[in-house]
Batch of 2 targets.
Target 1
Amino acid sequence: HVQLVESGGDTVEVGGSLRLSCTSRGFWYRSACMGWFRQTPGKEREGVAAIDNDGGIKYSEFAKGRFTVSKGGGRTALILQLDRLKPEDTGTYFCAAEGGCFVHSGDFFIPSYWGQGTQVTVS
């Protein structure tokens, strides 16, 4: 049973920073992708950043230069550093994972596993 749990969401001022973490349980594949997706008001869920076990990394255009995805240590599987936050970054951020996957330059991977989400509010 795979379990992903996000933490770190909060309310911050414009230009502020947050660090989101994702802990995982029961998820291990030789090749795998983990990533962050978000649901912002009035929009469909979209990919933010993804990383695979070979170190491949992908960012959405809006995330480039402001957000940084990295692998964690121990139970912390994934981290997303959010800097220079804007009001349009407000939304629910989800940790997601898929086995047998590599990050590539096309569309974001389609996850089989999702966390419950953590709320980020920028005002």
Target 2
Amino acid sequence: VQLQASGGGLVQAGGSLGLSCAASGGTLRTYAMYWFRQAPGKERESVAAINESGHRKFYADSVKGRFTISRDNAKNTVYLQVTNLKPEDTAVYYCAAHPSFSPVGRAWDSMYHWGKGTQVTVSS
């Protein structure tokens, strides 16, 4: 399965973006999906996750109430709506797939599939 994140851009603090993660070469139906981000000079961190059916979700404390993860299995796509953006949200955002959902997120190196990220830059 190949994954491609898109939808990033430059936005002012307080603004919003809609990120997408499209899959090709296979189905996402059997995977829990995760969004990660990596800011310059920092480790990649898990920010959100969703289980195969979309009924269970995880959010990092730093994004709770501002980010919303969703999925459309018919479109083989996962989304991350990011709102009320802050300069500290500036990072490259990646999507990744794992066979099972964890309510506390997972480490990047445990992911089974991942793709290139999309840059989100928030100006103050």
